[in-house]
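Appendix C. Worked example: Programmed cell death 10
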Amino acid sequence: MAAEVEERGPIPNLALNAILIPVFEETASDHRVDRTIIDQIQTVFQKAELQAPGISQDFVSAVLKQESIPHNMNEILLLLSAREIDGLSIDRPEQGFQTLNKNAQTLKRILCKIPNEIHDRTKFLQTIKEIASAIKLLLDSVNDVLKNYTSTGRMLEHKRNLEFHKKEFVKYSRSFSDTLKRYFKDSKANSVYLSANKLISQTNSIIQEFQRAVRDY
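Step 2, the predicted output written as structure tokens:
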């Protein structure tokens, strides 16, 4: 794996969700470890992300550099971001929300294939088609929930924020498409990894905003 090339700074929450939280969960499953302490550490990182977005990525990168481990942080994050995390799904039984969860996870899973397929043109072109289809399905499910579940939780109160996150997702989807076009001219794979990570981050943001919207107070 090539040495890391930083581009435009860390992505908020992505390293926390893709790397640190799974590590915390695995550590907490060890009966020798006090779960309360692990939860406290996770809470500290979550609060730190609110104060300094992307600090988890800086932390992980600093550890790898300290140990002189060659790495590409964008590639690592992309490969690991397909993991299913309890905190990144909408806890509602209705079919619309379940479909939204499924489509969000599907998109992330396909995006995470990029590092392993980007240098095989035939496979990569097929993956690009799958990504385009997954983006459409996710947007369709977002629109379905916005239209048909307005009385659930506090959906109406959060409608403006939900529409904002949807627009941001569309913006980053278009940016990802533009990055792919440039890749076939300049072959800069790291730019594709970074753009894919930003799209994953926006996907997570949509799910988290829906979580807040349907939460019972």
